[in-house]
Amino acid sequence: MLRGMTRHTPLNGRTILITGATEGIGRATAAELAGRGARVLLLGRNRQKLAATARQVGAAAAYRADLSELREVAAIAAEIRRREPRIDVLVNNAGGIFAPRQETREGLEMTWALNVLSPFLLTRELLPTLRGSADPRVITVASDAHRMARLDLSDPEHKRNYRSWPAYNASKLANVLFARELARREPWLTAATLHPGVVRSGFNSNNAGLQAALWKVVDLFALTPEQGARTSVFLAGAPELPQSGGYWAQSRLTAPAPGALDDGLALDLWETCEDYLRRLGL
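Structure for Short-chain dehydrogenase/reductase SDR, as requested:
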């Protein structure tokens, strides 16, 4: 941990928006940050779960959107801008793995849409509210799965040969590259990605068959959501972070895979995301 950071560092006065906040790591992150005095905002898909989580953690507000649908992301970002004059920390926590290949209502492969384009768009649209903070931060939950990834921007939706794990791994590499390019483009904020560990968080529970069955075995040995949330909480609350665009694990700055340090690939990813959003009129 950085000097001066303890488990109970107070966060009074800080407004923190967390996506995927109704279960698993997101809910544990929200509970811990609210317990430290932060003004916590929740963003999730299920209205009933949002209301229940907001009551449980004492959230200041809850916003509903299906983050796999990019027009909904843009619309909820506009609503948040209207209602929230300042956001200090954005935690891009929502994500998933999908077997077999699925497409959103907008015709995009689900992993690419939810894990990559959605946090890219939400961050872009909330930059005006982040500018109101004296110490703005964008934290994106990635994974050490990025170390096994190959990111092919000629086919980011894996139309030619879809397999769930390579698609997921590539999306996590994209998250790390996104933070690196965000830090370069927006030096006034601090960007970070992190590996939460293997967490018993409901991950993979949306799938069926052998993949879901095997993950239930993995869950027997996995971290609790509270343990998995520790690095997100640390990055949101540390008095200062030594590097923007860095990759963190166990609350420590960690070297990512060599491919995650490719500035040319980071730029290409950024431009690819912008092209996708232009095609959707966003």
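Confidence is low (pLDDT under 50) at residues 1-7, 215-221.
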